[in-house]
Amino acid sequence: MAREGEDPGMAKASKVKRQRKKKPKENKTRTVHANILYDNAKGEENPNRNYANNKIKTTKYTVLSFLPKNLFEQFHRFANVYFVFIALLNFVPVVNAFQPELALAPVVFILSVTAIKDLWEDYRRHRSDQEINHMDCLVYSRAERRYVERYWKEVRVGDFIRLRCNEILPADVLLLSSSDPDRLCHIETATLDGETNLKQRQVVRSFFDLDCDFDPLKYNGIIECEKPNNDLNRFRGYIIHQSGRRDALYKENLLLRGCTIRNTEEAVGIVIYAGHETKAMLNNNGPRYKRSKLERQMNVHVFWCVIILLVMCLFAAVGHGLWMFQYGDKRPVFDVLSPEGTDLSPIMSAIYLFLTMIIVFQVLIPISLFVSIEIVKICQVYFIHQDMDLYDEETDSHLQCRALNITEDLGQMQYIFSDKTGTLTENKMVFRRCTVAGVEYSHDANARRLAMYQEMDSEEEDCTSHSGTLPRRDSVTSHQSARVVLRSQSTKSHRRTGSRAEAKRASILSKHTAFSSPMEKDITPDPQLLDKVNECSSQMDFMRFHSQPMSQLPSDLADIIDFFIALTICNTVVVSSPNQPRQKVRMRFELKSPVKTIEDFIKRFTPSRLTSGSNSSSSSSLITNRSSNRGCSSLLSSPSAESTLTKLDEEQPPRGLEHSFGPVPPCYNGKAWNLEDGELRYEAESPDEAALVYAARAYKCSLVGRLPDQVTVELPHLGKLSFELLHTLGFDSTRKRMSVVVRHPLTDQITVYTKGADSAIMDLIKPPDTGKRQIKIVSRTQNYLNLYAADGLRTLCIAKKILSKEQYACWLQHHLQAETAIQGREELLFDSALRLETNLQLLGATGIEDRLQDGVPETIASLRMAGLQIWVLTGDKQETAVNIAYACKLLDPEEEILTLNADSQEACALLLEESLHYIQAKFLCSSTDQAAKAFHSNFAPFEIYPSSSPSSSSHTTPFTVLRLGLVIDGRTLAYALDKSLEDKFLAVARSCRSVLCCRSTPLQKSMVVKLVRNKLKVMTLAIGDGANDVSMIQVADVGVGISGQEGMQAVMASDFALPRFRYLQKLLLVHGHWCYSRLANMILYFFYKNAMFVALIFWYQFYCGFSGSAMIDQWYLIFFNLMFSAFPQLITGTLDKDVSAETLQQLPQLYVNGQNSEEYKPYMFWMNMIDAFYQSLVCFFIPYFAYADSDVDLFTWGTPITTLALFTILVHLGIETKTWTWMNWLSIAFSTALFFTVALCYNASCPTCYTPSNPYWTMQRLLQDPLFYLLCVITPVAALLPRYTVVNLCLTEYKAMRISVPLKCLRFSLMLNRSSNVSLPLASSWIKLVKMLTAKRCKV
Questions:
Q1: Of 40, 679, 1117, 1278, which is most buried with the most CB atoms under 10 A?
Q2: Burial class (CB in 10 A: 0-12, 13-18, 19+), 388
């Protein structure tokens, strides 16, 4: 009723609002037209005019904007604003304390140094931009009717570009034509994501049937696609032809900027995204800014310095007001009048003096601290990069520091979250065992071969270190020179991008095929299985000769040959010829005339054709849009409804089976497989695929060619067979499997081959109601899968399914509809795959070993001794993950393991409740258990105290880490991360020494890290090597990427990048400890130094009526912190080492020092401030009493105080310095010499600078006075004697406490580790620690 009574104006207004709301939805796509249609049009008429051009500009500034923009950025730092305000305040005559120009000098110096640094960095970016923008490419010109050379910066969206082999793509280009006969284009993405394997890209379907070269003038389509985004694995859109027909576009049609064309002579495409809108540029975010924990603590103390400053100024102002008030109406002769010439009241004098004292005491806020910290951090990063122990010779990669401002956080980590595959393991998948048709083949000879590789690798490293070259990973040595020549062109083209570091890495990695080391590909076959393969092949050869049907082949032998066919073709492996590693092997069988509709396609599968056993060379080929994506988007591909091209029989008589088994296909050039040229090379997208293909080749079932519509394999006795590839259903993390639909060349049947995780495949197996054989196969295979998992092997199941023509036609119709859908395409394709992958016949399973990286068990043991809690988050199945965890010493055989597997949230809650009760009953409340008593009495040093705060009141009590391990699967983890259960899960997990999360998704990994970081208020580090680890790496306080075989996605998202996991030990225990210790001590020293110097002026106020006067010359006052005392602390902050690297690695327990923030406690700040005020009292009053009743002037008394303060500060730094080098001595000598040089020159050249005071010849007279030298000895000794006494002798209680900690830990360690091989080394480590701490100077 209310709607009927609405005012028409209101209804119209609401309609307008709805239309406005709909507008953003309409702009979610981009429309791209060809530019050649608008060559003569004005700029406003070109529909592509609003899109970004291809000019790259990564610089921040221009000539005009540099000064204002840089100052604006520097003023984002509050300290700079504060000091500029103080300098400007000094220009006010009533409150000024120094010469205005002189007061500006420190601020101008600090701002100038930062500006010059920013300018140099920006200039380097400008040079790189210029180099890239002026690279050449071929762009079609309508006026000249040919492709002309233009700079990259001149390319626009809608331009047609011709690409040549080994050329780098200037923009994101939609592929419209390729010189490849299969309309393919191969690209190498090493500069984009670090992956060296080739990736296939396809021409847009509607341009498949071009009989001639692509002519841009005949192009009349309009492209609708998604707006620019940074997702490298997704591209959606469609092309609208003049006829109104639409063809879908996929990521397989898009060539990304920065990739290199391989294997294709020429290709033509239209620019979709240019410049900063390309996916590569949108992913190039550069180093990220993070605030370290130490910086946050420092900011609190800077705030306290401000409070102290205000209190001192307020005290001085009140004192000055009282002092003026005591004169009453009689004004002192030295009173300062107001600007109007009138007398100031005591209150106004106090207010003005308050502002004056802010100027005088400004040094209390360390202006140079922030710049010094930046300089020290840059130097620390430089020395970390120079550490050759963190250099990996095999990949020629160093540690990379991508976040320059959190180096000290490396010394304060408490939790480490690690991926498993590729991080703890090598990600080199080696075929170990398999089971086929319920029979297990152990491959013992292959196991013995693998046992020899570790020794061989060490010998290879020795040879490599002598030769200085990378180890050669390819077994084909006769063509090394050819590879070098080919790669030199690649390196040259890479160098043109301007990213020399990435080009160097890409060049090195591309010298060998990915996943093709001898360990991975040289597989020793099992003799029993090899005999069965040969027997099967010989029987098939016999049946071929006698024209017998294949159905007569025994079931066990048929399963064996199908098993190896599945291993060979169910993948996306690209075959390369050996003499040219990046040249694809081509083998084309006879093609057939195309048809355009499903009806024509179905007509092919008549009963007579299906039973006639036609030749593979006469089989049809359905060109498919294969997806090599390993993600969920566009995981499936097949022909579109309107543009499906099928290759039918030309009018030829049908051939018999003998042609299917022909040793050489009609159009095959046998020269490519000449043994003299070496074996074929496989370009795999994942190590799993490579391992299975190499395993099949070991049994003489070789993949010899791959085209978009067919896969060619070579079988023993049978020659080469061509399987018509109808569809490829790509792998994704949800289905956990991939499938290929092929037309079998022997039986003409439509066959589906599927491989995937056992958890996914076993649920899809056809119910075994046909006989006992299938039941036995499934049962035995499951038992063998459990054994493989127990051995730490990665398991995959292999299955197949035969489709009738009716089943295939029905599925195809739905699949084509899903593929041509614009909205919800991914979901429809996903459902289509689920519909096909049912009722499978189990063929067998494989066990693949992913070997641990060198040094992983030792690294984990060392990190655990350092007090770090290590959690492993992996996507592997539980049994495999548990066994790898035992192998890498994450789990201890003596530990109790809590396993949480639940099918519902209620069951998960019950499990967590029971686990908490069990932990409390066994470890916390048992009065009879000796270990529990010992735990509380002796393990106290390893208690973890979360920060208490109002938001985390439930976690303020200390908790201890028990000798328990927790294993939880992905489904249970999803329940445990629910808001109602996360606290219970965290209570259980934080009590365990190790946590292993299996079957975890990328989202779950990041949620676990965020939960621990936010709830426990601890420092977290996440380390991984793949794209699935990116979210976890970004959530953690410190993210570490491993530059492994899964590309560079993790590295690009990380703060630090390592070549190997074992380097994490030295990065944290050594460099992390040093960085934290150096910066913590430097910050405390800065606060002390500034407070000590300012306090000298404060004490003088008691003798000058709190007038704001200073006995120190303003030149010394301004430049004391900026110049005279700056250099030694920079050297100490960069080079000081409280403990040697060898000791830190031998005694990881010293890392606890940083975890507990022992070097920077709040009380240390206040102790340093108290010490600073004491030293200032000594440095002020000893010269005061020494020169009492003398006739020296103000500066003759103030200059010795300045000199004594400098000596005291430098000697104080010497006491705090642990490692002395020649640079420390040189810096102290330089600072002293600089002070005296400036003082002598200044005092000799300034006779009448500040009348009536005269600094002329002051230092010269002092150097002739013996009293001055006596003061230089007595005063620093008296000022530093208390600190020196405490530091060297130590308070008895403090020393006893420091020694009792390791003694208690020693007793507890000996109790827990009964076996001698564990306890003795651990005991010796603790004894070393006790001795070292006994000798170590205690720190106040």
A1: 1117
A2: exposed
Contact residues for 1273 (Cβ-Cβ < 8 A; gap 6+): none
Known catalytic membership, residue 182: no
> Structure tokens of 400?
């990379």
Work out whether strand 992-997 and strand 869-873 pair parallel, antiparallel, or are unpaired.
parallel
Helices and strands in the chain: count of H runs, count of E runs: 45, 36
| Residue 956 bridge partners (DSSP) | none
Angle CA 1311–1313–1317, to nearest 5 = 135
Does the annotation place 794 within a ligand binding site?
Answer: yes
- Find out whether 1119 is annotated in a ligand binding site: no
Reading the block at residue 891, the tokens are 């789990």
pLDDT, position 791: 78
At 157, which amino acid appears?
V
| 395 annotated as a binding-site residue | no
Q: Is the pLDDT of residue 466 over 50?
A: no
Is the C-alpha dihedral spanning 895, 896, 902, 905 positive or negative? negative
Q: Is 438 annotated as a binding residue?
A: no
Q: Which of 238-242, 553-557, 751-755 bottoms out in mean pLDDT, i.e. has the lowest?
A: 553-557
> In terms of Cα–Cα distance, which of 1160, 1168, 1141, 1129 is closest to 376?
1129
> Does 1189 count as an annotated binding residue?
no
Instruction: Name residues whose C-beta falls within 8 Å of residue 1284's C-beta, 6 or more positions apart in sequence.
Output: 1215
Model confidence at 525, pLDDT cuts 50, 70, 90, reads confident
1260-1280 pLDDT per residue, tens: 888 998 999 999 999 999 999
How far is it, in rounded angstroms, from Cα 72 to Cα 79? Answer: 13
Q: Residue 671: beta bridge partners?
A: none
876 is in an annotated binding site: yes
Of the candidates 1174, 1198, 1195, the one whose C-alpha atom is nearest the C-alpha of residue 1184 is 1198
Alpha-carbon gap, residue 742 to 765, rounded angstroms: 19
pLDDT of 43: 59
Distance of CA 882 to the CA centre of its chain: 25
**Omega of the bond leading into 1252 within 30 degrees of 0 (cis):** yes
Burial 279-305, CB ≥16 within 10 A → b, else e: bbbebeeeeeeeebbbbebbeebbeeb
999 labelled binding-site residue? yes
1005 among annotated binding-site residues: yes
Which position among 409, 419, 688, 1171 bears the catalytic label?
Answer: 419
pLDDT digits (tens, 9 = 90+) for 1229-1253: 999 999 999 989 888 887 666 655 6
Cβ atoms 169, 497 nearer than 8 A = no
What distance in Å separates the CA atoms of residue 1307 and residue 1318, rounded to the nearest whole number? 14
Contact 699, 525 (CB under 8 A): yes
Closest CA to 1255 of 1202, 1184, 1317, 1305: 1202
Whether 187 has a pLDDT exceeding 80, the answer reads: yes
Q: Which of 746, 777, 722, 1339 is nearest to 1081 (CA)?
A: 1339
Predicted local confidence at residue 658, as pLDDT: 35
The response to whether 1028 counts as a known ligand-binding position is: yes
Q: Predicted confidence band at 793 (pLDDT cuts at 50, 70, 90)?
A: confident
Q: How many CA atoms lie within 13 A of 231 on its CB side?
A: 15
User: Is 335 annotated as belonging to a binding site?
Assistant: no
Beta bridge partners of 738: 755
Pairing of the two strands 146-151 and 254-255: unpaired
Is 1029 labeled as ligand-binding? yes
pLDDT value of residue 332: 66
Q: Which distant-in-sequence residues (6+ apart) come within 8 Å of 361 by Cβ?
A: 309, 312, 313, 1094, 1097, 1098
Phi and psi at residue 1120, to the nearest 5°: -60, -55
Q: What is the mean pLDDT of residues 449-475?
A: 46
pLDDT tens readout for residues 314-340: 999 999 888 888 876 666 655 665 566
The tokens describing 494, both together, are 């890479």
